[in-house]
Amino acid sequence: MLTRDLGERIARAAVTGTSAAARLAALPGVVDTIATMMAGSAEAPPRVLCAGLAPLPAGQAWECVNGSRVDAASAALVNGMAAHVLDYDDVALRGHPSAVMAPAILALGQALGRSGRDALDAYVVGYETWGDLVERERGMHPIKGWHTTSVFGAVGAAAACACLLRLDGARAAHAIGLGATQGAGLMANFGSMAKSYQTGRAAQAGVVAAQLAAAGMTAGADVLEHPQGFLRAHSPQGDVDTARAPRATESGWLVERQPVSLKRYPTCYYTHRALDALLSLLARTPIPARDVAAVRVRISEEHATILRNHAPRTGLEAKFSMEFAMACALRHGKVGLAELTDACAAAPDMQDLMRRVRVETVPADSADWNGAAGFDEVIVERHGAPPLRSDRVAHPAGHAKRPLTTAELDAKFRDCLDHSPYAAVGDALLRTVRELDETPLDELWPTRAH
Questions:
Q1: Is 19 in a helix, a strand, or coil?
Q2: Half-sphere exposure (CA, 13 Å, Cβ side) for 400?
Q3: Contact, 168 vs 56, CB < 8 A?
Q4: Are 194 and 149 in contact (CB under 8 A)?
Q5: What is the pLDDT of residues 27-61, one digit of tens each?
Q6: Spans of the chain below 50 pLDDT
Q7: Could you give the CA distance from residue 220 to residue 224 in angstroms, rounded to a whole number?
């Protein structure tokens, strides 16, 4: 049985650990998440969350908005929301695994007095569980309306937290089931505060599920594979494999073979190939905005469906807009944290440029990216001059097949911290996080905001 077998795998890893190679492969996702979490701590959505739930229960876990110590479930909720609110967090497994799992693991790990090595082992286990489940589905959950990150994130985080709590196989399986019954999130919330709240709730669900399982709460023994269970209930067309046994990990963990892709821009990942294409074109041939008659972007219909905001007027809406991405690259020559603001999105010149962007859909025929075209490309039509065609981009910068260098990752970390209340501790925190495998989790966080 799938649920039982996954529980047994978690229990074995809790005793034996994973591997040095797997922990090393997991580290970039954790480093990147801490950076995006710190930057996100200053944003309105997590601050609204903290104000709405104040006072949060006291505890040993650190939350980034107020720099206070709260219970693990609350810290996972706050930090998960902050990690995802800028949409700058990593991408893999058809979602954003680190923004859910890292906040859950670090919060519970602090409460339990665990080490950084324990945290990385838990991440590897959660990643394996998430990947095992999402890869059983042949369709695209987002087309049906499911936010994959929060649906599968609750299960992945539950698995990771069960590993941290060192649950036996039966209780780890119950933790998975309790996470699965909390897996939820809607694509219709993209471009609103609720989108990152869904991610925070998945992180919180993982902590709560594992804690409840440890206390003796049970879930269905076949909750994942049952005809009315997790996998089939969420499947867009019911085209899901519930019979295959989990893959063996003796020859290596999934995170080693399929590591996360890190974001170069704080926008929906489905804009990144086109952004790389246009920015590379502009670097070769600068194009004044006044000369642009139209910008034609060729992407898959599946990706175009997710980019639902065609005339955004806020920074949150702009994250899910190809029109904004193209206009921003043309107008500002870059797309970074400084550009993802209400003022930038609503500016008259940006609104004018956005009206010139046309999305043209092509078949989703990528061999290694579910729902993607084989490549994305951009064509810029000019007044009184021939059109310019970009390179064809199959993998954006930061993708696992085009990874950021350590220097580029460190630069992103420092830039995120510079846009946060924690700028003063950026370099020290980066050094600590880089040595996470040897660091007690309680030494990781500053005790108050700077």
A1: coil
A2: 17
A3: no
A4: no
A5: 999 999 999 999 999 999 999 999 999 999 999 99
A6: 448-450
A7: 9
